Amino acid sequence: MIDAPKSAVRRWMAAAFRARLFILLAVTYAYFYEGGDPNQATRMFLTRSLVERHEPDITPYHRFTIDKSEFDGKFWCDKAPAVSMLATIPYATMNVVDRTLGFDRDSRVMQRIRLHMIVLVISAASGVIASIFVRRSLRLFGATPRLADLLTAGYALGTLAFPFSTVLFGHQTAAAMLAASFYFVVKTRQATLDGEASEENGPARLALLGALWGLVMTTEYPTGLLVACQGLYLLSADRRVRPVVRVLAWSAAGAFAPLVIHSAFLWWAFGSPFSLPYSHMAEPIFLAHVSTGVLGINLPSLVGLFGSFLSRYRGIFFFCPFLICTLVGLRSWIASGERRAELALCAAQIFAYVFFCAGYYAWDGGGSTGPRHLVPALPFFVIPIVWFARSKAGLRWTLLSLVPSVIIMLACTATRIELPEGDPWRANPLYEIIFATLARGEIAVNRADIYSLDPRGDASYNLGSLMGLTSVCSLLPLLAIWLAAYVPSGFVAWRRTRSA
């Protein structure tokens, strides 16, 4: 009887040790509060309206954001509504807690806690979930546990997944759903090819895929491109009429609820289930752009391609050199001759989102760190790297590229995510703003606040700064947590290697 609690504690400790990477990622994302910006504001205002006013418009709060639509004399959130709808759950819960405990929800402390908690529940959790499924996919494709951990950490900390897991945007939430659906669709297709009738390709799994696909499309509309890629990949497993109808029927059943809820919201707000928020943009400059092509999406442009990948302004290979390994990884994957169908799926998803991002009028994401519109597709940039990193030379280059990526992403997240717009050929916000800010000994410099029209000095923070630490010293507690989690086991592994 005495040993039973000890055994339970050991099991819990063993489980925590195995999950330490994901626990640390959750702590890391929670460590930063980025303050406000128009994108977060419009989503938060829709959440507030749904919970408190039971209305779909944000008219009472519209003056605090330029990201809005205008229709029928009212103002509306101009984003896909799924993130705001999901946020109603923690928002309503906090309202109950405030009333029960007598907290003043309009106080400065509670305002910041409210947005921070919603970001944790929606975006930080999405970052962790995406990382879990990236690791599962890497293991599925033959990565060793250590290599899978390394590449997962590279995804979570060395790409735009890091900063966008700390703000209330839709990109990382979409990435989590797509990373999960990718893993499940690969398993489902494999079970179908093996001729097995199991949970992997049963009705429940197909309905789950449909639900993920429906939900992600109502989170970020362009992800429909990636959903199409995954759907075609699954249908290619068995092209006979009956299996195709079965896949379509069950996945449609799963997608039914999120799509119907989304359509009902559009009907409620704009009088039609097909009237998207982007088609009613309030700002004239935004409206002019979305009126061209398909809601502002045209053929890829030279400036969009250069700016999104190579420029110092927003280039993802500049901000995240780790992702240069994607190109070599794809080459190594092709040379291996392995998993051709999955190679085609990864390449198609990368190409589809590159096509979208480089052709979108706001390819730079407005105020952004890197080309934020690529965030939903980043899991598929990381997966091919496993073929490159399996060799010693490839692993060495992967590590060399990962270190600066993590440093850059940490610097941006700790300082300011919403980098200003500029000349895509000449602007260098990483050096001109991020590194210059750190050189002055400053950190968390975003002054925008969703609750105020005027800049505020307390708009952003990290948990270290709340402890009274200043400048880069405020990051030391986070570094200490990571070292405490990994140094002891690393030392033990080193001793074993020496003794062997």
UniProtKB/TrEMBL annotation:
The keyword Nuclease does not apply. Keywords: Membrane, Transmembrane, Transmembrane helix. The keyword Membrane applies. It comes from the Bacteria. The chain crosses the membrane at residues 12-32, 113-134, 155-186, 206-235, 247-270, 341-361, 373-390, 397-417, 466-494. This is Glycosyltransferase RgtA/B/C/D-like domain-containing protein.
